[in-house]
Amino acid sequence: MVDPVTDTRSEMQTMWTRALLGVQPRWGRDFDDLSNEWRRLFAEVLGTFLLVLAAAGGPAVAAFSHGAISRVAYVSAPGLMVMAVILSIGLISGAHLNAAVTLAFALRHEFPWKRVPGYLMAQVVGSVLACLLLWVLVGKVGLLGATEPGRGVGDLQAMVMEAVLTFGLVTVILGTASGAQNVGPLSALAVGGYVALGGLWSSPISGASMNPGRSFGPDLVMEDFSHFWLYVVGPMLGALLAVGAARALRGRGGGAIAERAAQGTLSTPSRGGVAKSPRLDSQE
To answer: What's the predicted TM-score (pTM) here?
Structure first.
């Protein structure tokens, strides 16, 4: 018969040893289970595809149809699409759809660094596929929805605008995903609403990308990367500032609720190491 005291002491010693040696942290075990990784990556490809289809498709279709779609409509479309994607596939991959978001979650210790390259590649693939489809459908009109500085706007001005916009976006995402302010499905409204509002007031300055992947697809298909750097530097700088703000507001990060929001709930390990279903996980 097993002595419960000895068994508990042994389990605690194992846990402390793993913690001290950095072996299999809680969020690392999920990465080691690759049985669902293809679903997560496919979700990021699909989600980014839909996002870029709306974000780049709005300006492209507006040019193709000679202004049948207004600026208000096509800058609001990405926000509505983000909302729909988060609600539909957020539990599978966390619905990052954005390299700045993936970086922020990793820096907050809520997403494993080993999974970052796969997510970034999936986002790029989704963006490029969306732009290739737009090319087939409407041709290379309206710069295929490429994000460019507005008329009379310098690259530095546009880069600062992208940093400010992404700072706000990532702040909203980290805040609604945290244990302190977790709002569940309502986070989709907050994030989607922010994307739409950001586009409504700032798109004439920088195009309101807030997302390196969203800018990469049109630039690749149009074969013009002359302004792409600012849509990488700006969002990444904004994400870093948002992580700093989150640390000041809520501490180091790494809470269980935020981890599930960042990673999805497929094969999320319980305290005992047994995978839980998303339904059970959401009822804790």
So the answer is: 0.82
Radius of gyration of the chain (CA): 20
Q: Name the residue with tokens 């409504």.
A: 200
Question: Tokens representing 31?
Answer: 């990465």
CA dihedral 34, 35, 41, 46 (to 10 degrees): 180
Please check the confidence at residue 172 and state whether its pLDDT lies above 90: yes
Q: Which of 139, 211, 184, 142 is nearest to 284 (CA)?
A: 184
CA distance 73 to 59: 10
Domains of the chain, each with CATH number or no CATH: 35-282 (1.20.1080.10)
Got the DSSP string for 172-200?
Answer: HHHHHHSTTS--TTHHHHHHHHHHHHHHH
How many whole angstroms separate alpha carbon 63 and alpha carbon 60? 5
CB atoms within 10 A of CB 279: 9
Phi first, then psi, for residue 276 (nearest 5°) are -110, 155
**Which of the four pLDDT bands, split at 50, 70 and 90, describes residue 160?**
very high
